[in-house]
Write a structure and sequence with these properties.
InterPro entries: CobW-like_C, Zn_Chap_cDPG_Synth
Strand content: 15-25%
Pfam families: CobW_C (PF07683)
Order of helices and strands: EEEHEHEHHEHHEHEHEEEHEHHH
CATH architecture of the largest domain: 2-Layer Sandwich
Distance between the termini: 45 Å
Structural class: alpha/beta
Number of strands: 12
Protein name: Cobalamin synthesis protein cobW C-terminal domain
Oligomer: single chain
Organism: Paenarthrobacter aurescens (strain TC1)
Domain CobW C-terminal: 210-329
Shape: globular
Number of domains: 3
Length: 352
Amino acid sequence: MVLHDLLDGSLVLRRVYRDGQLFERETTQLEHGCLSCTVRLDVVPTAERLASCGFDHVVLGLPPGVAAGMAVTELRRGLSRPAVIDNAVLALDPVDLDDHIWDRHTLFESGFTSMPTDERTSGEFLIGEFGQVDTVMVHPGLGAVLTGDPREGSAQWLLGVELLGQLASHAGVVGAADEYRPGCFDDAEAAARNRPGVVRVPVIEAEGSFRTVLHRAGRPLHPGRFREALPQLAAGTHWLRGRLWIASAPKTRIAVQGIGPRVWLESTGKWLADSAEPGHAHPGKTGADVDSVLDWHPSHGDRGTVLAITGRSEDIDAREFRDLLDSCQLTQAEMKQDFGVWDDPLELSDAL
């Protein structure tokens, strides 16, 4: 097992354990102490060196704030021979999950990384990691261990595990002593889950303290009405995500994401149905994602709004959410107008 930590001053601390015993402890000074440099210049070379010494199985513990997806990419690119990644595992104290989602501080401000320029919040980091990993290991955090807090199995613990089931419904949830499913990491599945605008929800909607609501709108959204509705759509939700078909930018697939207190929109390019490449505008062609295949419509192709929200059951009214999103759609009369007539209150034309 190899554990890496990125310390202040661009210093990387590497510890290698074998059979539970520390047999290597080294520090490396990096010229640029960013997270990607740590992976490329220390994590990957260490994995390469251990493999060349005959260690066929290695567990890599990444520095806090390093995205598993970035590490996978660098390992694929940097190792001299192909490597099989069996599992991507995130260790988490479920008691702290709710606070992490709503924390406004950056990873640097919270002390998770030594990079002042890292503007991600802990909630943004965790949501990205939930999409990337196949397993979440629940374990009391360091503070709880040091203070002897018996939180495992408590009401707060179980509540956090329930929230985890809504945010990472695909992932196996295990304790430190539990058996887990080996060999279930899938690059393509992880990439599909993390593509902006993609929506994944729990297969079964069970009664509980948290819930996820999904809704689709088949007509373009009125930009003004949607701008007014967005704060209400996102209010009180732990995670809002989806893709938007907005009348002021009708050919652009716009991803929306809200994690705790932050909400943002981003362009992901043209809809597949608006692709300029002849013969490309149907879901059977290379490059079409799973959502476009499943949601393809005979008349408007993959265009459409798909939005999901996850939050406390007491804060989410499914009917109110769906009615509010439906009210943002263009009316039949508005559909007859040219798309160029719509104002751009979201400033999409400038941003895109």
